[in-house]
Amino acid sequence: MLLALPLILEAQNQEGTGTSISISASATVIGGDIELITISDMGVLDASRLQEGMEVYINPIFDAEAGIMRASGTPNAELRVSYLADMEVTRREGPGSLFFTYEVSGSPGDNQRESELLTETERELRFNNEGVFYFWIGGRVDLSNAQPGNYDGEFTIEIEYM
């Protein structure tokens, strides 16, 4: 199963307040009998209000702004997960780009603080007794080249049975 999350960004400069960003994501499931639901989107705008500078960091294990996804499949089945960590998102209307370095954590239970950072390019995991596994999506967003406007990109995660 390949999941592509279209990433739609809107950045705008507001006099004296810097750049604001909003992100929304939706899931597209390609093949297989694994269902993936987006529970909440990444809260980059909320995170940027709490941080200063040209980089916003959302920790997938500790930050409430992390996106949440729930995968459902065969109880206790082994699964393999891989994702693309780095992405450049370009502005639709002309020059300007944002750089994302994604971080993903996962857990068979709905407990973000007990989730494990998935640092390897490809990782083997297991669904819980109910056939559920949770993912939290965070990472770093470099805003140094951001211009006012709309930005498009995708976050891709691949989940397959072993």
Describe, in plain words, how this protein is organized in 3D.
The protein has 162 residues and is mainly beta. It has a single domain (2-161), classed as Sandwich (Immunoglobulin-like), CATH 2.60.40. The protein is built from 1 helix and 13 strands, in the order ββββαβββββββββ. The chain has one helix at residues 44-50; strands spanning 2-14, 18-25, 28-30, 35-40, 55-58, 67-72, 78-83, 86-91, 97-107, 116-117, 122-126, 132-142, 149-161. Strands 1, 2, 3, 4, 5, 6, 7, 8, 9, 10, 11, 12 and 13 form a 13-stranded antiparallel β-sheet that branches. A hairpin with a 3-residue loop joins β1 and β2. The longest helix has 7 residues, at 44-50. It is elongated, with a radius of gyration of 16 Å. Mean pLDDT is 77; it is low at 1-6 and 10-20.
List the defining traits of the structure above.
13-stranded antiparallel β-sheet, 162 residues, mainly beta, single chain, disordered N terminus, elongated
Secondary-structure element string: EEEEHEEEEEEEEE
**Total individual domains:** 1
**CATH architecture field:** Sandwich
**Which regions contain 5 or more consecutive residues with pLDDT less than 50?**
1-6, 10-20
Give the tally of β-strands. Answer: 13
Put simply, the count of helices is 1
